Amino acid sequence: MHDHRRLGRELELFDTDPLMGAGLPYWLPDGAVVRHELEEYVREVERAAGYRHVYSPVLGKRKLYETSGHWSHYSDDMFPPMPLGAEEVVLRPSLCPHHALIYRSRSHSYRELPLRMAELGDMYRSELWGALGGLTRVRAIRLNDAHIFCTLEQAAEEARAALELIGRAYADLGIRAARYRLSLPGEGGKYVADPELWRRATALLREALDGIEYEAVEGEAAFYGPKIDVQITDPVGRESTLSTVQIDFHQPERFDLHYIGPDGAKHRPVMVHRSVIGSVERAVAHLIETHGGAFPAWLAPVQLIVLPVADAQVEQAAEVVRRACALGLRAELAAPADGSLGARIRAARLVPYQAVIGEREAGGDLAAVRLRDGRRPGALPVVELLHRIGERVRARGAELWAAA
Ligand SMILES: [Zn+2]
């Protein structure tokens, strides 16, 4: 594995500027491609799993976080409030309160449950300066978040389905879970006091974890409830949390959420909080480290590099690039002016597909294909090459070349 901070700079994926501020990385075009593809992937698997997406603002009134309990239990991690006329607004430390209000804005029948509300939204954490680094400890976070509003009877099954979604995404992305952790409250006043609520939520999470090996750890719960943390490790073996599933009785209470049951009466829903890839920053950091910058084809900033052998084939090669781009692929030309063919091939070593065009290939609308892993499928008609790359990219698999 590799250090994502070094690779991120070398590959020009992201960077920071002291004038923007520590812990506030910006994304360069190649990094932005990886992030965009990852976000689209998440939206797609969520849509397929029955989630509907919303957008909500990154600011909220101080009163909102007093209602949610963040103000009294979590303010150490929040930015100071900003005065705005007679009010105060806060950069949000989580998306939950906004989603609770969106749920509350309409009346809901039990027939609509489970109601799965998802958002890739920004949130802020006032991390201490000394703790900041790369993409893993940042002050501005793009969170892959969702809240499932459901009945008590549905909660364990929804938590279970969220764990399955996490497992599927990890398989697609080549991420390995180091371990599953059931995070319980510890000593101190950080947690809301309601022993019965903690007991019930913990029992439901244990039910969702049935058949999965996990470790229960005290002191790592959210302030409003226990959670399942899916842990990953970095190159030096340091563990961190990527994905989470939580069961929450507290916020539905605080926001007075309800649904109309079959009996025509109001009932309190349960909130299941879950994140499939956690923060986009941490997920990309982990992908950079896992793949050493050699991303699966569907995530790669450049998917195809076209290499004319000599100046005489530059026009033909540029045409291949145009055709690839027209098909939605990310292709670039590396012309002889950029160096010898060998040097250009080495410079493109992280690009999944290389198409070399010499005199023979140019004459027959062919390309000599080389894969990043060293395989050489040989000369193929350009139209077939582009079709095959397009298929691999759409399949979002790790395998670069499918057997014909
Ligand atoms: Zn939440």
From TrEMBL:
InterPro entries: aa-tRNA-synt_IIb (IPR002314), aa-tRNA-synth_II (IPR006195), aa-tRNA-synth_II/BPL/LPL (IPR045864), Anticodon-bd (IPR004154), Anticodon-bd_dom_sf (IPR036621), Thr-tRNA-ligase_IIa (IPR002320), ThrRS_core (IPR033728)
Gene Ontology biological process terms from the UniProt entry: threonyl-tRNA aminoacylation
Every Aminoacyl-transfer RNA synthetases class-II family profile domain range: 29-296
Keyword RNA-binding: no
Signal peptide coordinates: none
Domain of life: Bacteria
Transmembrane spans: none
Gene Ontology MF terms in the entry: ATP binding; metal ion binding; threonine-tRNA ligase activity
Keywords (A to Z) from UniProt: Aminoacyl-tRNA synthetase, ATP-binding, Cytoplasm, Ligase, Metal-binding, Nucleotide-binding, Protein biosynthesis, Zinc
Catalytic activity entry: tRNA(Thr) + L-threonine + ATP = L-threonyl-tRNA(Thr) + AMP + diphosphate + H(+)
GO CC terms, sorted: cytoplasm
NCBIfam families assigned: thrS
Protein family per UniProt: Belongs to the class-II aminoacyl-tRNA synthetase family.
This protein's name: Threonine--tRNA ligase
Species this protein is from: Streptomyces davaonensis (strain DSM 101723 / JCM 4913 / KCC S-0913 / 768)
Gene name per UniProt: thrS1
